[in-house]
Amino acid sequence: MNTHLLAALDIGGTKIAGALVDGIGRLLVRAQRPTPADRHGSVVMDAVRAVLGELAEDPRWARVSAVGIGSAGPVDASTGTVSPVNIPGWRDYPLVRHVREAVEGRPVVLVGDGVAMTAAEHWQGAARGRDNALCMVVSTGVGGGLVLDGRPYAGPTGNAGHIGHISVDLDGDPCPCGGRGCVERIASGPNIARRALEQGWRPRDGEEPTAQAVARAARDGDRVAAASFSRAARALAAGMAATAMLVEIEIAVVGGGVAGAGDVLFTPLRRALADYATLSFVRDLAVVPAMTGTDAGLLGAAAAAALGHSGGPAVTAGV
C-alpha cells in the first residue's frame, strides 16, 4: 500500500488554500489564508508559508512526497515563476523556488489554475475515464485545460488549453490580454453582466449587477438577461468547437461560478455548439457541468504533483 501523501496549494486573488491529499483524492487536512493581493510580493509569500506551516503541523506531513501548486496565471512552469493578473506584487515571481525552500527541498510541480481544474475533473470528476477532454472555468475570467491521450496536458509553461483567450470575434471588443474579441471578453461573469446592463437590463433593488443576478432575471423571463447569456454561450461554443477541431476532444466540462446558472447557460450552449461543431468527428462533442466544485484547485494541484513527480502516489479513482 502506498502511504505517501501529496501537499496541494490553490493560489488565487482572494484566498490561498492548502491541503494534504491521499492517492484516492481525500483531503485529509486543510488550511487557508486570505490573499493579501494588494501588498508586496513578500507578504503574499508569507501567507503561502503560513498555509504550508499549518499543514506541516499535522503528523502526516512526514509522508508528503511532493507538492503541487495550482496558481492564477499567467504561470511559467518552465521557470517556476508566476505573474497572476490579480496579484500585482507577483511579477515573474519565483514561486517554485520559495515553496521548495519552505518544504525542505521536496519536489514542487506548478500548473495554471485552469490546468489544475482539468486534472481534478479527469481524476475525480466529469472527465474521469475520458482520453481527450477540454475542461473550462467560467467565472471572473475564462480559463481551461486539456486532457490528451488520457493525461492532462499542461504544455511547456503550464498554460495549455487557455481557451479564454481564443478570439471568436475578429471585430470584437479589445481584451485586457491585448487581443480582440476573446471568449473571456464575452463569456466571463463580469462581461455577461456588462452586456446586459448595456442593453437595458437592471438588477432588482438592493441586488448587485452580477452574472448570477442576470441568470435569475433570465429564469424569470427577462429577454435582455437571457440574450446576454445566449451571447456568452455562443462564444463558449465557438471556442469549444475550434478546440475540438484541433485536437479531437470528446467532452467539454464547464465549471466556475457562471456554470452555476445551469440551464440558463447550458441550454443555449448546447444549441450553439450544434451550429459550430458541424464536422463528423466533432458532432458528438458532449458538454457537461463540472463535478469537483470548490475543491477542484486542490485536487488538481495534487494530481499534477503526482503526475509530474514519479515518486508520488499513483492517483486512482475515488470511491
Defining traits:
319 residues, alpha/beta, Nucleotidyltransferase, domain 5, five-stranded mixed beta sheet, 9 helices, 12 strands, disordered C terminus, ATPase_NBD
The fraction of residues assigned to DSSP E strands is: 15-25%
CATH topology of the largest domain: Nucleotidyltransferase, domain 5
Number of strands: 12
Q: Please, how many domains?
A: 2
Strand order of the largest sheet: 3-2-1-4-7
Q: For this structure, what is the CATH homologous superfamily of the largest domain?
A: ATPase, nucleotide binding domain
Main sheet properties: 5 strands, mixed
Query: Low-confidence spans: pLDDT under 50, at least 5 residues?
Result: 309-319
Query: Distance between termini?
Result: 16 Å
Number of helices: 9
Structure description:
- InterPro entries: ATPase_NBD, ROK, ROK_cs.
- Pfam families: ROK.
- It comes from Streptomyces meridianus.
- By secondary structure, the chain is of the alpha/beta class.
- It has 2 domains: 5-113 and 294-308, ATPase, nucleotide binding domain (Nucleotidyltransferase, domain 5, 2-Layer Sandwich); 126-290, ATPase, nucleotide binding domain (Nucleotidyltransferase, domain 5), CATH 3.30.420.40.
- Helix content is 35%, strand content 20%.
- It has helices spanning 41-56, 95-102, 113-124, 183-187, 189-198, 211-219, 223-247, 263-276, 296-308; strands at 5-11, 15-21, 27-34, 64-71, 75-76, 81-82, 108-112, 133-138, 142-148, 151-153, 251-255, 286-289.
- Helix 3 (113-124) packs across helix 9 and helix 6 (211-219) crosses helix 7.
- Residues 309-319 have low confidence and may be disordered.
